[in-house]
Amino acid sequence: MSQSAPATTLQDIIAHAKEYGFVFPSSEIYDGLQAVYDYGQNGVELKNNLKAAWWKSMTQLNDNIVGIDAAIFMHPLTWKASGHVDGFNDPMIDNKDSKKRYRADQLLEGKAEQLANEGKADEAKALLEKMGQLLSAEKLDEVRELIVAENIVCPVSGTANWTDVRQFNLMFSTQVGSVADDASQIYLRPETAQGIFVNFLNVQKSGRMKVPFGIAQIGKAFRNEIVARQFTFRMREFEQMEMQFFVRPGTEMEWYENWKETRLRFHKAIGLPAESLQYHDHEKLAHYANAAVDIEYKFPFGFREIEGIHSRTDFDLRNHQELSKKKLQYFDPNVDPETNKPYGNYIPYVVETSVGADRLFLATFCNAYTKETVGEDDKAKERLYLKIHPALAPVKAAVLPLVKKDGLAEIAQDISNSLKSSFRTVYDDGGAIGKRYTRQDLIGTPFCIAVDYETKEDNCVTIRHRDSTEQERVPIASLKEKIGQAVAIERILEAI
Ligand code: ATP
Fold first, then answer.
1. Dihedral (CA of 93, 95, 101, 107) sign
2. pLDDT at 2 over 70
3. Whose CA is nearest to atom 31 of ligand 1?
4. pLDDT, tens digit (0-9, with 9 covering 90-100), for 250-304
5. Based on the structure, what is the number of domains in the chain?
6. Are 242 and 309 part of one and the same domain?
7. Are both 269 and 209 inside the same structural domain?
8. Which atom of ligand 1 is nearest to 234's Cα?
9. Residue that terminates a domain, selected from 329, 349, 365
């Protein structure tokens, strides 16, 4: 019998992630570096498994999607063409009393959320629309006026003593080479997408790719975020998993709808529940997009974006073509039924899916964190475990001898060694068996294999299932197949 426990807070998540080797603050011995985090021994496994699921869902499930791995540094003109040098800004505002800095759009979004919670959905919508118009028109004075008119105060000082709203470019820059002149200034990429755009023709030609086709990439991106909080949700160094899908102009909305649905299925397939996921259409379209939607996950701090799906038109390829003076066109031999002639040369349109590996990690981790009260009355006790999809769990199986003596340790070690080449298995003989189960629960190991005295007689072991804590007796010889099937990444790919 289990009852629901109090709601999980972000503090619970941060503490658990640190205590059990998932995420540590960067350079913690020096008191950390704000909005930068390191993944620990279990975190890196979970993150790698998530990345593998995404990578395979793109490049293995789709005949027409291939991957690349572009460099972080790119020619500086890349960022001119993409619009990042001139337009990759966030509007910031400071409170003069508390000296705290905020993103002006986030203050207004917060107010809209509050209005919506008070049942004033129309007012909330109108506010977001107004904000979108003012930001698109770069009317920063009026954005400030709107903040004041809405009586938005600084949560720290409680005052509305605001500075002007200013634009702040989020790109990190550095120097390449030993001569410090302007020409040698380069940027740390703020998104991975541009590495795909500049390689569009290389991949198309060398892979003989036919439109529609996609290029996928996983890699680091860097943004000097104004307000960096909420753990790995908003970092200054993070990882993106992006796929640019090149299509014939005029077909982009079909593909946009298609990818919107496929990506939601992916999130459900990795174990995020439908009720914790939602679409959110953009009020303010980015400079490159003609349609955009976010997939949001319900974090402990509310529904927030984990993935963006954008119809980017030919904005990027066209600008790269202009600045590089290299043709970035595709010849489409297919016949247009209306004109009876081949579609011929065009710059493809692009539908992009862009998900943050770190936000996906955080969503998976928050979703997995399960506190249950087991038993009733004076026998009630709390059970805490990570309900991670078996294919994503850092450790798939733990082999635990009941005691170290009488040859049980050796049998357990042999079993562990025989499973290692198939999936990640650990051996643990330290402490009472109950404590060892708990240790594995806390890192989300789906299967514990207990070796006891009977094992010597019947060559069977007890598998203890993480979520139900149910136990089942199975022959040693069947372990590899039984557990192997349950933890295979195919389980996720088949569900997409
Ligand atoms: P936000 O509005 O939250 O700043 P965004 O719309 O700027 O996000 P995109 O540019 O669409 O984000 O980036 C695609 C994905 O990259 C996001 O959905 C998110 O998962 C991830 N991402 C973006 N910025 C960060 C960050 N600072 N830290 C971690 N992940 C990020």
1. negative
2. no
3. 356
4. 999 999 999 999 999 999 999 999 999 999 988 667 767 889 999 999 999 999 9
5. 2
6. yes
7. yes
8. 28
9. 365
CA pair distance 102, 77, nearest whole angstrom: 30
Q: How far is the CA of 459 from the centre of ligand 1 (A)?
A: 51
Q: What is the mean predicted confidence (pLDDT) over 459-486?
A: 97
Ligand 1 atom 9, closest CA: 308
Task: Note the pLDDT tens digit of each residue in 117-132.
Answer: 999 999 999 999 999 8
Low-confidence winner among 210-214, 372-376, 394-398, 462-466 (lowest mean pLDDT): 372-376
Whether 355 and 456 share a structural domain: no
The CA–CA distances, whole Å, from 280 to 41, 113, 134, 290, 306 equal: 34, 13, 20, 15, 11
Residues 399-435 have pLDDT tens digits of 999 999 999 999 999 999 999 999 999 999 999 999 9
What is the average pLDDT across 461-487? Answer: 97
The verdict on the CB of residue 445 being under 6 Å from ligand 1 is no
Residue 480 and residue 407 share a domain: yes
Q: What's 325's domain CATH number? A: 3.30.930.10
Q: For the chain, how big is the Rg over CA atoms in Å?
A: 26
Domain residues for the domain of 36 are 2-72+191-365
The atom number, within ligand 1, closest to the CA of 310 reads: 11
Report how far residue 209's alpha carbon sits from residue 348's, in angstroms, rounded to the nearest whole number: 13
pLDDT per position as a tens digit, 243-254: 999 999 999 999
Longest dimension (CA), the chain: 83
How far CA 222 is from CA of 102, 132, 237, 307, in Å, comes to 19, 25, 5, 17
Instruction: Give the CATH number for residue 441.
Output: 3.40.50.800
| Claim to verify: residue 326 and residue 466 sit in the same structural domain | no
**Which residues is 175 bridged to in the sheet?**
185
Q: Do 131 and 284 meet the contact criterion of CB atoms below 8 Å apart?
A: yes
pLDDT computed for residue 284 by the predictor? 67
Inter-residue contact 17 to 394 (CB < 8 Å): no
Let me know whether 242 and 343 are in one domain.
Answer: yes
Examine residue 299 and state whether it is found in any structural domain, yes or no.
yes
Indicate whether 234 pLDDT > 70: yes
pLDDT band at 180 (very low <50, low <70, confident <90, very high): low
Nearest CA to ligand 1 atom 3: 305
How far apart are the C-alpha atoms of 326 and 322, rounded to whole Å? Answer: 7
Best residue among 354, 362, 364 to mutate for probing ligand 1, ranked by most atoms within 8 Å of CB: 354
Is the alpha carbon torsion for 418, 423, 429, 435 positive or negative?
negative
Query: What Cα–Cα distance (Å) separates residue 169 from each residue in 82, 90, 173, 311, 313?
Result: 14, 7, 10, 23, 24
